[in-house]
Amino acid sequence: MVKAYELRTKSKAELTKDLEDLKHELAQLRVKQASASNQQQNSVPRITAVRKSIARVNTVISQVQRDQLRLFYKGAKYAPLDLRVKKTRAIRRRLTKFEAAKVTVKAAKKAKHFPQRKFAIKA
């Protein structure tokens, strides 16, 4: 069984080689299962383990690829939709801090000429 943390240390070429080996092994197990009689069904658990290992390798490959793409698009004005932060729909549509802090010309003049009054509180 292949462990994900072990796969993360491997390069892309090694991962693709592992994937090909696992797929070849799965094909051999399926042939063995089809040719075997009902009494020799001991390859079924192995088939399950190989399928899960294939899934792990594919997952690690896609995660590494997405991490590299995130680094590539870091600091860019636009990133692909699937690399953007999900959050919630309401948060994504909310005004940015810059947009929320903007003030109209009239409001700016009013704030400048009529500032908030300061009162001294008698204790």
Please, could you describe this protein's structure?
By secondary structure, the chain is mainly α. It has helices at residues 4-7, 12-35, 44-73, 89-93, 97-101, 105-113. It is rod-shaped, with a radius of gyration of 30 Å. The mean pLDDT is 92.
Helix content: 55-70%
Overall morphology: rod-shaped
**Overall radius of gyration:** 30 Å
Strand content: under 5%
Mean of all residue-level pLDDT scores: 92
What oligomeric state best describes the polypeptide chains here?
Answer: single chain
Mind describing the biggest β-sheet?
none
Secondary-structure element pattern, one letter each: HHHHHH
How many H/I helical runs?
Answer: 6
Distance between the termini: 75 Å
- Number-wise, the strands total 0
The low-pLDDT segments are none
- Structural class per helix/strand content? mainly alpha
Could you list some keywords that capture this structure?
123 residues; mainly alpha; 6 helices; 0% strand
Write the layout of secondary structure elements.
Blueprint: H1 4-7, H2 12-35, H3 44-73, H4 89-93, H5 97-101, H6 105-113
Helix pairs in contact: 2-3
Could you provide a short overview of the structure?
It contains 6 helices and no strands.
